[in-house]
Amino acid sequence: MAKKYIAFFMACVLIALSFTGCTQATPKDKIVTEEAVTEKLTDNTSFKLSYTQSDSLDPFKSKAQNNQVLASLVFESLFDIDNSYELVNNIATGYEYTDKKEITVNYDSSITFSDGSALDSEDIIFSFNAAKKSPAYGNSLQYISYAEAKGNDSIVFYLSTENPYAVNLLTFPITSIKDDEDGFPIGSGRYRYAYEGGKTVLKANESKEFSPYITTINLVNIAAADSIDNAVNIGNISYAFRDLSSSVAKRMSSAKKLVSMNNLVYIGINSFSGITADAQIRKAVSLAADRSTFADSAYSGYADIASSMFHPKSKIAENVKIFSNEADTATAKQAILQSGVDAKDLKLKILVNKNNNRIAVATLLKSQLEAVGFKVQIEIEETKEYTRRVKNSEFDLYIGEVKLSDDMCLYPFFSKKGGVRYGIDNKGITCDELYVEYLAGDAELGKFILAFNEEMPFVPLIYKKGMICYTKAMSGDMQGYYGNFFSNIESWHFDA
């Protein structure tokens, strides 16, 4: 009997253990099931950008900087320029110079716009023609005459002058020839314009392989620059690009990331009259300039030092360095002696407009020029009067700034129609002609550089930086750069 009881007891134990095993396995199966159906977290309320409601959202009509920044989310271009000023395929799949004045670009004909319609040659040519007339892209495209389709997936761009870097200019937005039913321009980018709750927003483009955390971007109507700065600081908007055209950096308490820009700050020189008509005096001005001080002090570190006339991060500048970071006072004094100008005549006036950074440059330059023997006076004018005087060459020196195009073209200084040609005596220099020959492939870059260094028609100082500002509540590795401000927006998120 005892044996029966023992057997019965053991059987009960085995049964109990078998149920325990099932009980332990069930939660594991349940977790696997729950993981399989878990949806990716998204946010359609937290991320906010400023825009100017009174300005157009059409990238070819907009004038406001914040509206132009939005364009990089909605539209794609044939090519992008990366943070190292290298060309990257986007809609385009490749290109070739079929002639010195012809660029044939192949594009991906499988790409569709956010409304599902196919992107084709007609859209690209329409966008190019609109870009040529636009305030944002017109200047950079002025030396590309026209474009025409070639086959089913190629466009030929015809240049008015030879330029081996002209393909870098094909970064304008590509839009559909038609707007959507709400009147918004249509692109093939990561987001699209839409109305939601009676307000304009950006919605993630469902037709694109793009799965962001931020599915809706809310737009806040803020036009004034100071108001945008304040809105980022207090979190009313999540992100903004600032070009540091004034003392923005000092006002910003948000998270920040510096971005390089192709904005050259330079010394304009009157080569037509006065002691600056002498090339040795112009060289002395350049040698006396301490570029590291301008970058660190006048621009509080928000600048790249110009080691040549080209942006130091660009490929063309890799092997070109003609300017020292620091002042070379000894060589500057030697250049003055070689000029033969009498010491009593070493008088210069520096013209500058009412811009805090440029006034700081002028003040520092005054001290640097005085250190090599010049007597210097600063003349500060309102922008309108400053502009008039520059255009009429009523200056010895002036502090200027110009946004160069992505091909690093110096035609703004050397062309008869150039926007900053003032004070440059084209008949008295040769470097401008050598530059044209270099672009045509008829002269070496070094020959142009040597001539420029001897004639010094203007003095490059620094390339200004901009700033991406964003709320501290947002997480993610901020990799945006100029022209692609939201490069990795799919990884941005707000911590719970």
Concise structural overview:
With 496 residues, the chain is an alpha+beta fold. The chain is built from 12 helices and 21 strands.
Describe the overall structure:
This protein has 496 residues and is α+β, with helices and mostly antiparallel strands. It contains twelve helices and 21 strands. It has helices spanning 2-37, 65-74, 121-132, 225-234, 279-288, 291-298, 329-339, 356-370, 383-391, 411-414, 431-439, 445-455; strands at residues 48-51, 76-77, 79-81, 87-89, 92-99, 102-107, 144-149, 154-159, 173-174, 191-196, 199-204, 216-221, 239-242, 255-269, 303-305, 347-353, 375-381, 397-403, 458-470, 474-475, 493-494. Strands 13, 14, 15, 16, 17, 18 and 19 form a seven-stranded mixed β-sheet that branches. A four-stranded mixed β-sheet has the order 1-12-11-10, covered by helices on one side. β16 (347-353), α8 and β17 form a beta-alpha-beta unit. It is globular and about 75 Å long.
Query: Which percent bin holds the helix content?
Result: 25-40%
Strand content: 15-25%
Rg measurement, Å: 30 Å
- Beginning-to-end CA distance, first to last residue: 66 Å
The SS-based structural class is alpha+beta
The major β-sheet equals: 7 strands, mixed
Question: Could you report the average pLDDT, rounded to the nearest whole number?
Answer: 89
Individual helix count: 12
Q: What is the general shape?
A: globular
Uncertain runs:
1-38
